[in-house]
UniProtKB/TrEMBL annotation:
<dbReference type="GO" id="GO:0016747">
    <property type="term" value="F:acyltransferase activity, transferring groups other than amino-acyl groups"/>
</dbReference>
<feature type="domain" description="N-acetyltransferase">
    <location>
        <begin position="1"/>
        <end position="145"/>
    </location>
</feature>
<keyword id="KW-0808">Transferase</keyword>
<dbReference type="InterPro" id="IPR000182">
    <property type="entry name" value="GNAT_dom"/>
</dbReference>
<protein>
    <recommendedName>
        <fullName>N-acetyltransferase domain-containing protein</fullName>
    </recommendedName>
</protein>
<dbReference type="InterPro" id="IPR050680">
    <property type="entry name" value="YpeA/RimI_acetyltransf"/>
</dbReference>
<dbReference type="InterPro" id="IPR016181">
    <property type="entry name" value="Acyl_CoA_acyltransferase"/>
</dbReference>
<dbReference type="Pfam" id="PF13673">
    <property type="entry name" value="Acetyltransf_10"/>
</dbReference>
<keyword id="KW-0012">Acyltransferase</keyword>
């Protein structure tokens, strides 16, 4: 498996992969390719984007999209999207992507990663196993209008 930086030319294929992952179990979303492409392109073009793809003999099989922010004088990395092909899940692809992200982030003096994930899916277990922890005092709030 090869891990490399995401390039703009990857976005079209990654949008297809994103749809296939998040429209399947356990998320069962209703993403269209156009929505997925727009989301991934927006993150890709955001200020201080960090992103990596995993590729093997089957092509691109996973990706992590993130961006750098600052909090109290420290650099932190917001992980916005992580997804791995259904056929490649639980084979070390996600760990390889996170390891590369962590390695590069350390070189850039990033001291913290943070993310939002669904606590009812195996994604939560993946992040807990990788060393993440939740915070009881934090609350996700939204306002739709």
């Amino acid at each position: 498996m090869n891990i490399r930086k995401i390039e703009e030319k990857d976005l079209d294929y990654l949008a297809d992969l994103y749809v296939s992952v998040f429209n399947a179990e356990p998320w069962n979303d209703d993403w269209t390719k156009a929505w997925a492409y727009e989301r991934l392109e927006f993150i890709f073009k955001s200020y201080r984007f960090y992103g990596y793809v995993a590729e093997n003999e089957n092509g691109l099989v996973g990706a992590v999209f993130s961006r750098i922010g600052s909090f109290k004088g420290e650099l932190e990395l917001e992980i916005v999207e992580v997804f791995v092909s259904g056929n490649e899940q639980r084979k070390g692809v996600g760990v390889a992507l996170m390891d590369e992200l962590k390695s590069q982030a350390k070189k850039d003096n990033i001291t913290c990663f943070f993310l939002l994930t669904d606590k009812t899916t195996f994604a939560k277990d993946f992040y807990l196993k990788y060393g993440y922890h939740g915070h009881e005092e934090n609350l996700l709030m939204t306002h739709e209008f």
